[in-house]
Amino acid sequence: MRWHKGLAALTAAGSVALTAAACGGGQVRGTQSTPQAGSAGGAANATFVYVPNLDVVTDWDPATSYSNEIIAMENIYESLTRYDPQAKKAEPRLATSWTSSGDGKTWTFTLRPGATFHTGKPVDAAAVKASVERTKKEAGGPAYIWDSVQSVKAVNPTTVEFKLKYATPLDLVASSDYGAYVYDTTAAADLKKWFGEGHDAGSGPYTVDTWQKGRETELTLKAFDGYWGGWSGSRYKRVEFRVTPELTTAWQLLQRGEVNFVQRLNPQLFAQAGGQGAQTSQTPSFQNLLALFNTESGPLKDVRLRKAVQKAIDYDGLVAALKGSGVKASGLVPEGLLGHTPGRDPVQDLAGAESLLKEAGYGPGGKRLTLTMTYAQGDGDQQLLATLLGSALDKLNVKLEAKPLQWNTQWDQGKSPDASKRQDIFVMYWYPDYADAYSWFVNVFRGSDKPSFNLSYLKDAEVDSEIDSLPSLTATDTGAAEKAYADLQNRIIDERAAVAVLFTQNYQRAYAKGVQGYTDNPAYPNVVFVHDLTAGA
Amino acid sequence: MTAVVLRRTPLRRLGDLARADVLAAAGLVILVLIVLAALLAPWLAPFPDDGGAATHPAEALLPPGAGHWFGTDQVGRDVLSRVLYGARTSLFIAAAVLVVSAVAGVALGVVAGYAGGWARDVIMRVTDVFLAFPALLLSLALAVVLQPSVTTVIVAIAVTWWPWYARLTSSVAASVANRGFVDSARCLGVPAPVIVFRHVLPNSLTPVLVQLSLDGGGVILTAAALSYLGLGAHEPTAEWGLMVEQGQTLFTTDWWVVTFPGLAILVTAFAFNVLGEGLRAALDPHRRPR
Amino acid sequence: MIRYLAHRLGQAALVVAGVIALTFVVTRLVPGDPAVAYAGPKASAAELAAARARFGLDDAPPVQLLNYVRDLFSGDWGTSLHTRQPVAHDLATAFPASLELVGTALIMAVVVGIPLGGLAARYRGRGPDLTVRVSSVLAVSVPVFWLALAVQTVFASNLAWFPVAGEYDNALDTTSPLHVYTNITVVDAAITGNWPILASTLGHLVLPALVVAAYPAGLIAQMTRAALIEEAGQDHTRLARALGFGETSVLTRFALRPALNPVLSLIALVFAYAVVNGFLVEAVFNWPGLGRYAADSIRSLDTPAIAGVTLLVALLYVLANLVVDLLHGVIDPRARTR
After folding, report:
1. Cβ-Cβ contacts under 8 Å, A248 against chain B
2. Of the candidates B126, B133, B285, which has its C-beta nearest C314's C-beta?
3. What is the C-alpha to C-alpha distance for residues A403 and A411, in angstroms, rounded to an integer?
4. Which residues on chain C are in Cβ contact (under 8 Å) with A23?
5. How far is CA A238 from the centre of its chain?
């Protein structure tokens, strides 16, 4: 059981209990629709089988969904825009075009004509307004993405206008992987309960066919015939999610042709998959692993020691040991996002680390330094980091006490009001909720008296004010935003040494030969946009 | 049973056992070898540093060969060295668990058996509750609650193991307390602690020793299972269950990372079990599942 | 007999009360805020407060214990933090699958263990005896999680004789849907005549059941051997021998019946143990039972679910003990006075 990695550990939950699917006597297990007798159409009626390694759905409500179900939701629901990591900007989805006022505080979207919800209602400006307002009102985990929105107005059926409290890149917000779905709020009287029973009210290419929590084949989706994108060519008409926690099992299922797509393999199996006829893709994600240094208390309050630890880390050794499941990170912002700064790759410098330690009275021959580090229990990559960092620091007469903890224990300790109970190094993954690097800075490095995710406890007024200027710069002047991002990274990583960016995770996917047209979009972690694919021989 | 046992020294009995039971003798020999391997790990291990914090990412996942008899793991550590150092961890855990649970269990058992009355009732009802959980289950629940570490494993297993010793000792103590010579000692005014130390404890010793050797295997397996679930020892400690956990996704591609630590658990548990079986067969025909 | 029954039931009730209290204490010791586990890592303060209120986490501990006991008896075992469904419902779906696996394993264990024990007793001290003793101790000494991985790699991955994981081939849900009555797939498939699913489930059962069966098979073989050897020394078997019956028929015709009594009670007791051992096996073979559920619960620090699994298995164990004792009381009057 090599349990969860990164994202899964963080994205543990949404916020609403689902009512149980009844399990009385004589119920038919599996699909409720009549099996398509003699699906002679071959590829035309093909099923796309996706293998996730965790349960798929915890929250069916598009307003509050904030977890693994994204892999299904993005095929059922649509947002106004979709982020394109190559172009580093939002592309049309339900909206075909949009404009913003010069101050970045008024945004007008033009909707795609002819799009309808699975309920039969048209996707119009009123529906967009109602969705955004309901999502805000439900106040679930992702609702904050709309925080800047003052009011939404349906100007006419195909035009919707957002008035903002402050300048924000709303086209990026609208491409968010969570909380940006447009849905039919009139689908049922008690919408939350209705969603909880496994119904959907989206406009996407697929709609829920069967859902059985806890089953191996947890969820199946079927084609929505009225989809605006049409069903030309040999597209997959059904999607099946088959939960398989064991990586080896997942790989064997793919090898036998029982499934089409495996979300994650380990590097060894991934290499094997490439050599044995499966297609593979390796894409850097928007998720990186951070080691946050305690800048407020404990030995690392001394900036020299923080810099020494930064230099002691064997970044290349770590990436080598990850065998392709991670790449060296250049700064805090991953590639594909505005604010990414090339040429910042860190390198190990043991001599430099030693002289900094000596300066502070530690190091070989000096006092023995003991540092505590907390990381996610069950995460193989973080465990590798703990092993390698412990090994490097040991040579410098520094003892690393690395403790694997469950997330809420680790987090509670990090937030402890008693500073002496906090750790020296906090290891965690970070990823943005929508394709905007602002997420790292405002959540992880903006000062606050009660720590939440700013677990380096950095309090720097200059850094804070520069962070606060980011949204409006992004909305109005991307060139200036780029400069602000570069400057902030200099301050946070180099001057204050509050963090070491260990690596950016790589997504390693393996999929069957016949699957054509797959590209991995890191803005939507683990999502396969099945409608974009075609089933080949 | 105790009367027979009392006449012979433990050493003599071991000698008899070796002649009568080849398997038990083999278990004893294997166990001695494992203890030696654990004690001498720093000298026996080809790469002693690999048992600790050292790593060599450049030499990761080398198959077994002349340089590394058992191959290397994901960060290039010599698997043989780590298996040897792992013996230290496993035997330490087993010893600590058995000592803690035997001391606690024997103390409570003596009180229950010798004092009788309500003290006995309370203690026995409490052991009933603990014995209502299969050992691994309660350890598992406790280990989830505590933070993962070797200490956690020891505490979690000891909590589920002591009642067996309490039960065992209480029945021995109760039978001894009712014998004539103890009664006369009591009448002569010998204080209770002296009676307990002179008469009750020595009589409990043999069944407790048998039980200890029988439980060694169970404790090793439970500890390995907890570490395998990520609830026990953690990096860079060399621990067999943890090594299996770390290597399990490599089984099809790099079999040696998983195979050798697993075999080490098997052999150690086997040695404890055959030795315990032999001792029990010689001394006590009853058995119970754990 | 009535007094014995009342006494034994009273004792069991006391144990159950203790088990509930202990489970409660253990789950209250869980570090970190259960509300965080429920509401998610990026939850707002308001959501956390709502979650705390929902689970009554702000009440005093004695009040929480009272509420816990009241809820347990009204069938409300709490709501799982990770599946977000009632724990009782989750257990009701997961337990039958475990029962299927452990039941099959115990059948295998009996079928293999008793003859091997007999073989060892028949040839006591000779080659077959030594072989059986060594292999039965090996069977109880092997770490199940490792055996599961090894067996899966060799027989499913490399040789492809058996399916790698899962309960049955999921494609069958479309081609021959299963009507669920008991939630035990083999049983449902057999009574509804769903042969494709029955065949597929049996195929998927072989490897995990073999691994779970190792421990009980070893124990049963040892126990049968010991009981047979003991019985072989009794008066009635000696009489049979004196009447000219051969050694093999003495063992099988006269000694086996009485020797099976302790073996049968052993099976009842080993059942709960096998369920827990099965936890580790289910996780490897992705068997949709209690073990996989427990593994998921541990991963997400899902307190109500962990408490539910712990309680269920402990109650099962108490029940098995009770049944064994009562049966003994019926069969053997001496047991009542103990």
Report:
1. 249, 251-252
2. B133
3. 13
4. 89, 92-93, 180, 183
5. 25
3-class secondary structure for B7-22?
CCCHHHHHHHHHHHCH
CA distance A167 to A455: 28
A45 Cβ under 8 Å from any chain C Cβ: no
Q: What does the radius of gyration of chain B's CA atoms come to, in whole angstroms? A: 22
Report whether A425 contacts A373 (CB < 8 A).
yes
Q: Is the dihedral of CA C185, C187, C193, C199 positive or negative?
A: positive
- H-type helices in chain B, by residue range? 2-6, 10-20, 22-39, 41-44, 79-115, 117-131, 135-145, 150-177, 180-187, 192-195, 201-228, 240-247, 256-283
Among A244, A247, A387, pick the best mutation site for testing chain B contact (most B Cβ within 10 A). Answer: A387
Give how far the C-alpha of residue A472 lies from the chain's centroid of Cα atoms, to the nearest Å.
23
Q: What is the pTM of this model?
A: 0.80
Determine the Cα–Cα distance for residues C184 and A23; give it in Å rounded to an integer. Answer: 12
Task: For chain A, positions 216-235, list CB contacts with chain C under 8 A.
Answer: 216-217
Residues 123-142 of A with CB under 8 A from C: 139-141
Please say whether the beta carbons of B280 and B209 come within 8 A. no
List chains adjacent to chain B, taking adjacency as at least 3 C-beta pairs closer than 8 Å: A, C
Q: Which of C82, C167, C175 sits opposite A216 (nearest CB)?
A: C167
Minimal Cα distance from C15: which residue of B? B129
Residue ranges of chain B whose pLDDT lies below 50: 1-6, 285-290
Burial track C117-153 (b if 16+ CB lie within 10 A, e otherwise): bbbbbbeeeeeebeebbeebbbbbbbbbbbbbbbbbb
| Least confident residue range of A114-118, A326-330, A411-415, B140-144 | B140-144
Instruction: Please answer yes or no on whether B253 and A3 come within 8 Å at the CB atom.
Output: no
Pairwise CB contact (< 8 Å): B55 & A388: yes
Query: Band of the pLDDT at A14, cuts 50, 70, 90?
Result: very low
Burial code of A236-269, b = ≥16 C-beta within 10 A, e = fewer? bbbbbbbbbbbbbbbbbbbbeebbbbbbbbbbbb
pLDDT of residue B257: 92
Helix, coil or strand: residue C19:
helix
Per-residue pLDDT tens digits for C153-193: 888 877 878 887 778 876 676 677 777 777 788 888 888 88
Tell which A residues from 252 to 311 touch C, by Cβ distance under 8 Å: 252-253, 258
State which residue of chain A sits closest to B54, comparing Cα positions.
A391
The residue length of chain C stands at 338
The pairing of beta strand A369-376 with beta strand A398-405: parallel
Which residue's structure tokens are 């939350």? A192
Least confident stretch, A259-263, A304-308, A466-470, C305-309: C305-309
Residue located via tokens 């090996």: C138
Amino acid at C300: S
Residues of A in contact with B228 (CB under 8 A): 1
- Compare CB distances from C157 to A15, A245, A252 and report the shortest one's residue: A252
Burial (CB < 10 A; 0-12, 13-18, 19+), residue A365, is exposed
